[in-house]
Amino acid sequence: MKNKIFFLLAMLSCLVVGCKDEDIRYSIERPDDTMHLQVSDEYVELNQKSGKEEAVTFSWNEVTNAPLDSKVTYYFKLDIADNDFGTSIDKMEIPFGGHCVSFTHKKLNALLTKWKIAPGERVTLEAEIIAEIEETDCYVKPELSTVRFDVVGYEIQPYNIYIMGTALEGATDPANALKMTEEISEEVYTWYGVMKEGDYKFILNTTGQSPSYTQGADGSVVFNEHETGNETPFTINKAGFYVLKLNIEAGTLNVDYPTTDYNDVWMVGEATPAGWNIMSSTKLTKDPVNQVAFYYEGLLKTGDMKFPLELKEDWNVAWLMPIENGTHEFGDNRMERIEAGIQGHDYKWNITKEGNYRVTLNMYTMTIDFKLLQSIPDDLPCKEIWMLGDATPAGWEQGKEAFVYDFNVDKGTFYWEGELKAGSFKCPINVDGSWAITCYMPKQAGEDGKASLNMTDVQLVQPNGNDYQWKVEEGEAGQYRVELNVLTNKIKFEKKN
What we know:
Layout: H1 2-22, E1 38-39, E2 43-45, E3 54-59, E4 71-80, E5 92-93, E6 100-104, H2 105-114, E7 122-134, E8 143-152, E9 162-164, E10 178-179, E11 181-184, E12 188-195, E13 198-203, E14 212-215, E15 221-224, E16 234-236, E17 240-247, E18 252-256, E19 266-267, E20 282-283, E21 285-286, E22 293-300, E23 303-305, E24 307-308, E25 319-322, E26 327-328, E27 335-338, E28 349-351, E29 355-362, E30 367-375, E31 386-387, E32 401-402, E33 404-405, E34 413-420, E35 423-425, E36 427-428, E37 439-442, E38 450-451, E39 458-461, E40 469-472, E41 478-485, E42 490-495
Parallel strand pairs: 2-8, 26-28, 38-40
Antiparallel strand pairs: 1-3, 3-6, 4-5, 4-7, 7-8, 9-10, 9-13, 11-12, 12-17, 13-14, 13-16, 14-15, 17-18, 19-20, 21-22, 22-29, 23-28, 24-25, 25-27, 29-30, 31-32, 33-34, 34-41, 35-40, 36-37, 37-39, 41-42
């Protein structure tokens, strides 16, 4: 029994010794601060106009208590004070031999924005320099030095850059320079449009040609505070549509000459010359200068329209449509492609003002532009006229054979071109499917109500009035240009063959 007790006591003695050994802790003290980190100003008020200038500089002394032949690497951190550097900038390694770090107004303001500090709010920041000592016989705890300062940021205002030069139509003078789009504040700017052979540069205001950004010796972008006459502009050697991306921080300019896979575009609808006859749709012209654009120049009437990308009698084709139904000619300029066979929408543009237009479709930007060249005068008795009768291609179907207003001849003149067959016709100014229509008719007619093509005097007849018509004889059939002047009440028939 005694032996067992002695054995247990011996084991307990060993356990006690073991626990005492494990409780030993070695504490390494942090070296004293011999770097004495300093800040250039205890209060800094940031200014956007001084964006590229240094706002604050941090400097420190070299570590003096590092062992001989050791390697010292310095790291810098910056954060909101009393945050234990929990949201600090990424730890910056200082290049060998360096003992200072600077921040520009723009960089420091960007950090305040990142930390969600409101513009104009005064905040205390804390900087820290860390000296890591390596290649020693024993571990040396990093030396630290901190400093605090106050800073007030600014609300970022647009920093405008313009493009000017002989390569841009009408922009050879600073007053007419074209504003670029600021994609990233004070850093990245874009512009796209048609350019011609010539040169161009970037300016910061529309009152003079300096300050400016021009071409450097290696094709880079250089900043010119003042105009010296030795600046080298950028050049365009081939006219066309270009996309420019200017990065003033990196000093680079990307110039893109895009292309398009679209080969043909048509337009159809009651606003167009073809009406809703898809197989007679009006084809747009490929722009000879703008390689990504198609255009139409001519009359558009009031009504709806859209753009088929091929012609099929079953209408099962791809389309270009607005992003909202009923978009008027000066509304949202965006468009989208709706593929054939997809149960998508059937949106249309709605033309609200009849007139002579230039319609341009840009297939790169997927935008449409309606430019009203001339509008039909408001003081005319009517703004729309049609041909109606069995002498016309559409016969007695209303709204198919429209006159076009001629802006190049006497005021009030409308014209129609097409085939006249043996038969009769009259010229309504309103078509609604009913026969309560007002028409231009011959001023005089025979007992049968018909007049020859020699009757050039016309009258405007209300519904339920005389139903006079012009008669085309068998030997008179052919291709015609018919002109009707609603101010002089005269009609002219010009046979083309």
